[in-house]
Amino acid sequence: MASRHGKDTVTIINAIDISQYTNSCTMADETALHKTTCYGSTRDSYQAGIGDGTFTIGGIQNDGVNNPRDVLKPLKAAATAVPFIYRLEGTGSGKAQTSVSVFIKTFNESSPVGDNATWTAELQMTGALTETDQP
């Protein structure tokens, strides 16, 4: 099995590629679990519920075209779900792609005195999560 290098990752939100400003992306894909344990049991038992999840993305702040501050803050203020595409292997035919609608839950900026200004955002998934190969 071949390893993948993170440098090839692509992040596209609301049809805008913000990859050039992004240096981290973490997907947390979850399933709710409902406890079904009854009297007399010696161990808990569970039933799987519905899926949920978030993406946490971040990078270096920049004032270039389609920078994260200019793209993400208005989407957060609009409080409307938008499409998000995550390509762990980069863009290309047959490479994996994850697509889901998201709300911008948080947008944070940090400006330490001795380093680059950075940004992070938490994207709340909503609706179906689609994992396919790119055409």
Question: Could you describe the 3D structure shown?
Answer:
This protein has one helix at 68-78, and strands at residues 10-13, 16-17, 22-35, 46-60, 82-87, 96-110, 118-133. By secondary structure, it is mostly beta strands. It has one domain (6-33, 47-133): Roll (Pnp Oxidase, Chain A), CATH 2.30.110.20. The protein has a 7-stranded antiparallel beta sheet with strand order 2-1-5-6-7-4-3. A hairpin with a 7-residue loop joins strand 6 and strand 7 (118-133). The protein is globular. The two termini are 22 Å apart. The mean pLDDT is 95.
Name of the CATH class: Mainly Beta
Question: Fraction of residues in helices?
Answer: under 10%
Strand order of the largest sheet: 2-1-5-6-7-4-3
Q: Would you report the number of β strands? A: 7
Cα end-to-end separation: 22 Å
Count of DSSP helices? 1
Tell me the layout of helices and strands:
Blueprint: E1 10-13, E2 16-17, E3 22-35, E4 46-60, H1 68-78, E5 82-87, E6 96-110, E7 118-133
Summarize the structure.
By secondary structure, this protein is mostly beta strands. The protein has one helix at residues 68-78; strands spanning 10-13, 16-17, 22-35, 46-60, 82-87, 96-110, 118-133. β5 (82-87) and β6 (96-110) form a beta hairpin.
Question: Main attributes?
Answer:
135 residues, seven-stranded antiparallel beta sheet, Pnp Oxidase, Chain A, mainly beta
